[in-house]
């Protein structure tokens, strides 16, 4: 596998601050168009959590030019597909088009960037939709509820404390005026990035961007998020008891630096070694050898604006002991910190990380996603140029040092899901 990769992105900044990024790829007659706004749940305040996600829903409810639902109908009539998502750090909207239809997306996205019609009746209906989404995806899903509680426990100051979808009471209390202020604060060309990838000519994209977005007014630069999570002073624990849960579940979460720190390479590799796939240490020990868990995995949230979490988790077998599973998970972490892994295991993990990176760039959509994320996080797409060689350069000592520094009991939040019998 090549040690370097270069993505020939062309960029331009319009006079109103909109950053436009284009990657030409004429392999297939398709185009992905994405608009990224630098706003997510990280930019919210206590009492108004979930407002970024609610606004994402409302972006499909019409402008002064197009009625509710017309956006997606126009996309479909032109053979495209569209969707959106909100995260802790950003909100993104995208459409996938045939190469002769992408300009339609320019017109639609520029229209709702500046001319969204926020109607009280539509707002009231959509708020109920979001509240029901929260019930189904979080409150009625014990594992999701535990993950939410772990984040809320791990973060006591930083806004990563609350969920992207928001607390139920906060969502219920958001007003239409609140939403208007949020829209007017964050939805502006100077707080957005337009990414176009596929069978296009860069100069044509820049021309169409100027045509549709160039006249949109700048707004005041949104306020910076200044909250910083203090260093954790000792192990934290949270237990969720649920009558909906069928099996116990164990989660170990550690505070870790995010992308751009330089430490994400070793942390990404140790995540693979510990919990990614059936050959990982957790799966081999807990599932194959001890038969104490049904599944295990690991995730490292490196793609975040501020320091995130690296977490390990396991689903306990029926009649199994979550206490025993936690002990075994800790033992595997300790083994890694002692450097008890082979050169072959290290090289395999590095190859898995590199393969995941390369495969993640195998389509217009995912290339645009990667570029959009990096730009929105202020890392920049040039980060991709050296990623493979930085992974290849990670040594045993780098992995051990990262594990010793961050996978400590002092830096740990433990989450336990305990099934509770109904009376």
Layout of secondary structure:
Layout: E1 9-13, E2 19-24, E3 30-37, H1 51-58, H2 70-77, E4 81-86, E5 91-98, H3 102-114, H4 120-139, H5 142-154, H6 168-173, H7 176-186, E6 192-198, H8 202-213, E7 236-242, E8 249-256, H9 264-275, H10 281-289, E9 293-300, E10 308-316, H11 322-337, H12 343-359, H13 364-376, H14 387-392, H15 396-406, E11 412-419
Parallel strand pairs: 2-6, 7-11
Antiparallel strand pairs: 1-2, 3-5, 3-6, 4-5, 8-10, 8-11, 9-10
Helix pairs in contact: 1-4, 1-7, 3-8, 9-12, 9-15, 10-11
Structural account:
The protein has 423 residues and is of the alpha+beta class. The chain has 15 helices and 11 strands. The chain has helices at residues 51-58, 70-77, 102-114, 120-139, 142-154, 168-173, 176-186, 202-213, 264-275, 281-289, 322-337, 343-359, 364-376, 387-392, 396-406, and strands spanning 9-13, 19-24, 30-37, 81-86, 91-98, 192-198, 236-242, 249-256, 293-300, 308-316, 412-419. It has a 6-stranded mixed beta sheet, with helices on both faces. α1 (51-58) packs across α7, α3 (102-114) packs parallel to α8 (202-213) and α9 packs across α12 (343-359). The longest helix is centred in the N-terminal third of the chain and has 20 residues, at 120-139. It is globular. The model has no long low-confidence stretch (mean pLDDT 95).
